[in-house]
Amino acid sequence: MMTLELGVVLVVLVGTVILFATERFPVDVVAIIAMSVLILTGVISAEEGVSGFSNPATITVAAMFIISAALFKSGAVVGLGNKMASLFRYNFWLGVLVLMLTVAAISAFINNTPVVAIFIPILAGAAASSNHSLGKMLMPLSFASIFGGLCTLVGTSTNILVSGVAADHGLEPFAMFEMAKMGLVLLGAGVVYMMVIGIRLIPNRGTNEGLVKKFGMGDYLTEIVLQKNAPSLGKTIAESPLVKSLEIDILEVKKNGQYYIMPSGDMILEEGDILKVRCDVSKIKTLKERQGIALKTDLKFGEQNKRGSATEKEEEKMILVEAVIATNSHFEGKTVKQLGFRQRYGATVLAIRHRGEVMREKVATTVLRSGDTLLIEVDRDKLPYLQQLQLRGRYTFLIVSEIGFPKFRKDKIYTVVFTLAAIIAMASLEILPIMVAALVGSMFLVVTKCISMEEAYTAIDWKVIFLLAGAMSLGVALDNSGAAGMISNFLIGLVGGWGPTAVLSILFLLTTLLTSMMSNNASAVLLAPIAIASAIALDVDPRPMLMAITFAASSSFMTPVGYQTNTMIFGAGKYKFVDFLRVGGPLNLIFWILATWLIPVFFPF
Predict the structure, then answer these.
(1) Residue 307 pLDDT
(2) What's the whole-model pTM score?
């Protein structure tokens, strides 16, 4: 029977899923809005609404963010990655195999986002030195990190979250290696598929060319000379018709033999000034007579001034780097102009690869999204500041060019690795609950100065924390209103006649499809109560149903937005949306078949 409470929950549920999928608002904002509506309508109490913030799963996820950041800052993975990458120079297929197994092993115990962040520039170097396509390396990298996360409780936040939902319903939480048997089967199947079929389906788009060619900037970067009749003479850069009329970006000014990198807007322009600019060259040619400028066709972007005015040292000060906007970055939804990118970071965004399309004009006003790739020109002296942004746990953006890494705290490697091993051991042997072990371990890393408290706060992805807390309140509402039971009854009526395995299969498929469109954590927390209700209605153990939700939510291969590591490699690998569907679609189908067959074997009803 439909009640007002049930109707409210269903409306909120549908609205939440739509907003998650369309990305109209950030996922954490949507989750908190859903929680607020449910509290205001009385579906859940205020205490139930905010209980997600104190849930052991949420606290565990926050602590693991800190531990992963400390491991990243120690540089523990870099040396291993560099040795592994050298294999590509000898044999591509051996390199891919070792890459996938190595990344999977690491990702089984720490957040896979920093793992992928470390390996992208390493593989960029390996691709350049071995003359292999970077695209054929990055997708196996991302997928392998997902495979590894399926093998342990701490492999992904999704695993911890579903375990927390189980505990909230009076069930036993997942053990550290309870998922290992099924996880290793999926890991093996995934590696074999990628080696035999998957990599061959990845198109070779020649991602090893230089960045100017890669972004098609040859006709957008040039040098011009101001002549005596130029209207810009005597005006500041900000007020110059060059900027106001042509909307060009002045990257550098050579004035009286001196170079001014990224000049300020109040610099006065004079006759004979040589400006390095970003603009469609055809536009400059059309307007050069009116604007009183001459095109320096004898100079190419990136070459030295052959007339001897510039020294080699001056020319080498500016370098090009490629960076990817990270998932949940505070850059999302903002423009380069709003961010004050040039003033804040001492660098200029020359072009943006936005959802597969290269934006070379109106760069400053293009709204940035996660996965967008930026072509950045930066003063070599200011590069370390950009690199340091990667050492913040939120990964504002990831520099994917092979330019070396920022300074790591290598003297802390053994402390961090020992702490991680101790956490895993204590949780596995049930000496301490995983939440307590992770919390104590993260604070030990702070006390031993492997990570500062400020860095620890920054390391926590608060968007994920608020998403988890808000989504958990919706899970409570599904239970309280009877919506979980109603949806489960519909599923049982649909396929229940074929037995609990059929229901498990449908739940896995439904979770896979939802995860391809929205946050995997949100998918898991919404469907876990329905899985439990379905098991209760069928009078079977809920464990297999929950495992189906867990494995499906952590296995998103069909889209670049379904999982954060897919988003990270999207621009760097020059992929198109259809590439993930072509390669990841069959892989998701294989996982669905294996899960339907083997989950009831490893986790009997």
Answers:
(1) 37
(2) 0.79
